Amino acid sequence: MNFYSMLKKRQEEGNPVRVGLIGAGKFGTMYLSQVRKVPGVHLVGLCELNIPKAFASLKRTNWPDAQVNAKSLEEAFKTGKTCVLDSADELIASPFTEVIIDCTGLAELGIETSLKCIQHGKSIVNVNVEADILAGPVLAKRAREAGVVYSLAYGDQPAEICEMVDWARTAGFEVVCAGKGTRFQPKYHQSTPNTIWGYYGIPEEHAIKSGMNPKLFNSFLDGTKSAIEMSCVANCTGLLPPEDGLKFPACGADDLARLLKPKSAGGILDHSGMVEVVASEERDGRPVFRDLRFGIYVTLRGDSEYMQDCYKEYGMVTDETGEYTCLYRPNHMIGLELNISVASVGTRHEPTGSPVAFRADVAAVAKFDIPAGTVLDGEGGYYVYGEAVPAKRSVENGLLPLNFSAGKRVKRDIKAGEFLSLNDVEYDPNCLTMQVRREMAGMIE
What we know:
Elements lengths: L2 H10 L4 E6 L3 H10 L5 E7 L3 H10 L12 H7 L3 E3 L2 H6 L5 E4 L4 H13 L3 E4 L2 H18 L3 E3 L4 H14 L3 E9 L13 H5 L3 H6 L4 H8 L2 H14 L18 H4 L14 E6 L16 E6 L3 H9 L10 E6 L9 H10 L11 E7 L17 E7 H6 L35 H10 L4
Parallel strand pairs: 1-2, 1-4, 2-3, 4-5, 5-6, 7-8
Antiparallel strand pairs: 7-9, 9-10, 11-12
């Protein structure tokens, strides 16, 4: 990649990539643990509404007190220090930042944040995949038009899957399927913040003491986060989700090439060129052998006997025909890898994954019967989970985007397992999110 030498050059020229970080949660704190050790990158500002939380995160990641005591962004810029503040608007508008990282996870606010960055000529690395799935194609288009970069966050699985897909296509392979692993059982679709710790085997007292967010953990378990991330990959790569939602087949690394190929070739896919998530446990609860719970993968097709011979000669795992093979990575390191995005944006003006069209969406599905008058609590909550669907189906049926559902009051009784539509809830059709969504409907492919 050569990023390290390019960053060193910026350091030597006295012109490091000047970063503003919004959010000192898990992802942001992981980034804090790495960024101060990399030449050519200067964390000018850290924005966190809870200032003591920000300083606690800096302390946990061994930042010297003298490094984080800048009284203003200007002082931080001039001295090489970092300023801690509680105003994202100030960080974005500052002439002393060039790349903004959104680590908040707040979907609708994230759209506003990205648009402000673009308005102020700042590139954005969007850890906030919740905002990306609501509006990513429009945000990326507007960023390109403004001459700045809108990028997914490396370290998160979508960006790393996009990289793997790009590698495969650039090398001349047909990408049959791409995706990630997770823990999954069908019953997890009905998981709530009340049941999450039991499923994870974590005592509730320990979770509370450790500050673990039940809705966040529940979003990973109930299938919502998988739907969000695979839809994000689809919008970036042109791969498509299944028409009727992700299947979550139980599959280990050695079976990827056997299962994740078209049905016409003996696999489970409707066609070549799809996204899918593989489960790390069998439906009866047994662990999958060599599971990919924290990993990513692509399956590839060899279109000649010569390619298939090459697979054999170099020890590639294939299906029984030798025509399909796979590449996988067993882990991802989340915020610890985030500086790859900063380096790519800051040195090459290139994103580490960016949506180019509206191909997939995440719609809200009722976990249980929902009576009229209920106020939905959104991602990872008590009432709805997210299902990945083709964008055309979502728009034509007016489906309720999962990450637009929080705080919306239901107008009629909804049955368990039913997709909710925008007509089923009270909302402001002229709000910023809906304005952007109408624009995005024109980007369907």
